[in-house]
Amino acid sequence: MTWIRTVPEGEAAGALKDVYDAWVKLMGFVPEIVKSTSLKPEFTQKFEALRLAITFGGSRLGRRRGLP
Fold first, then answer.
1. CA torsion 12→57→50→42, rounded to 10°?
2. What are the domain boundaries of the chain?
3. Count of alpha carbons within 13 Å of 63, Cβ hemisphere only?
């Protein structure tokens, strides 16, 4: 649980609801780190876009980096 004010899942709207819904679909819950930025939904949405670009972005290396 975060110690800062956040937007609860049931009160999320617009772009923030889209981000929350994507996390629920992926993991079954919204991580607290995502909720910690929820008072600024435009930041939350841009941060998620950055996270996705870093995780799944254009790299020929692929996601697997460890042992074969």
1. -40
2. 1-47
3. 6
Give the three-class secondary structure for 17.
helix
- Give residues with Cβ within 8 angstroms of 14, minimum separation 6: 41
Length of the chain: 68
pLDDT in tens, 5-64: 999 999 999 999 999 999 999 999 999 999 999 999 999 999 999 988 888 776 666 666
Structure tokens at 31: 């991580």
Which pLDDT score is estimated for 52? 86
